[in-house]
Design brief:
Largest sheet: 6 strands, mixed
CATH topology: Rossmann fold
Strand content: 25-35%
Number of domains: 1
Radius of gyration: 17 Å
Order of helices and strands: EEEHEEHEHHHEHEHEE
Helix content: 25-40%
Structural class: alpha/beta
CATH architecture: 3-Layer(aba) Sandwich
Shape: globular
Number of strands: 10
Strand order of the largest sheet: 6-7-8-3-9-10
């Protein structure tokens, strides 16, 4: 499903700061992996590159048979919309849409509306424990509730690639456990490839494999 080959990202030109240096990673369909590492080593940058939100200086990203580097911005957007679910650290909820509208956004963009969309939204909101907040606006939510909305939005269209950047960072232990189990179950059920970026050993332990990202590169923990 995902094959990252010798990915390099430098900010500030060739003499600037090298954030990622020849990083490689493969994640099969139905596989869920964690990436850990100190702050500033490029974990979020790696997810942004895989999602096509940023462009690498060298290397290759294959999603299925699609080479991300061969796509223009419009086709990267369509690929992201159709095949990816991304949980951002900063949530990125639309303030003028209620919870149900925010969660339904991937379905709307993929032309799924009406009863089928409503059922998908209701099901995933119940799974994250927010079935009573569908009509609430983001400004009426706590940080933890916004985090759960972001997770629901990332999963509602059943993407083939799930990218989660610290998805439990704003959650109490009980809600974090629910969200981590939900991510694992949905990735397995939908035969998706999943990447979890986290500082939490407990969160990483819910995945199939754990990688450490450092200045020396990305290495699987043995």
């Amino acid at each position: 499903m995902l094959d990252v080959r010798r990915l390099t990202k430098i900010y500030g030109g060739q003499t600037g700061r090298r954030v990622l240096d020849a990083v490689s990673l493969s994640v099969a369909a139905g596989e869920y992996v964690a990436i850990m590492g100190e702050s500033g080593v490029g974990k979020s940058t790696l997810l942004n590159l895989i999602a096509g939100l940023d462009v690498a200086d060298s290397g290759q990203i294959l999603i299925g048979e699609v080479d991300l580097a061969q796509l223009d911005e419009q086709r990267r957007t369509l690929l992201r919309r159709n095949r990816m679910g991304f949980v951002f650290q900063a949530f990125h909820l639309l303030p003028h849409l209620d919870v149900a509208g925010n969660v339904a956004l991937p379905l709307t963009l993929n032309q799924m509306t009406g009863a089928q969309s409503d059922a998908r939204v209701a099901e995933v909101l119940a799974a994250v424990g927010l079935d009573g907040r569908a009509a609430s606006l983001p400004r009426e939510l706590s940080g933890g509730e916004m985090q759960r909305v972001a997770v629901a939005r990332a999963l509602v269209h059943r993407p083939g690639l799930v990218l989660a950047d610290e998805p439990t960072g704003n959650l109490d232990p009980d809600n974090a456990a629910v969200i981590l189990e939900l991510l694992r179950v949905r990735i397995k059920r939908d035969n998706a490839a999943g990447i979890l970026v986290t500082h939490s050993e407990a969160a990483a332990a819910t995945t199939d494999r754990i990688y450490e990202l450092s200045r020396d590169g990305l290495h699987e923990r043995r």
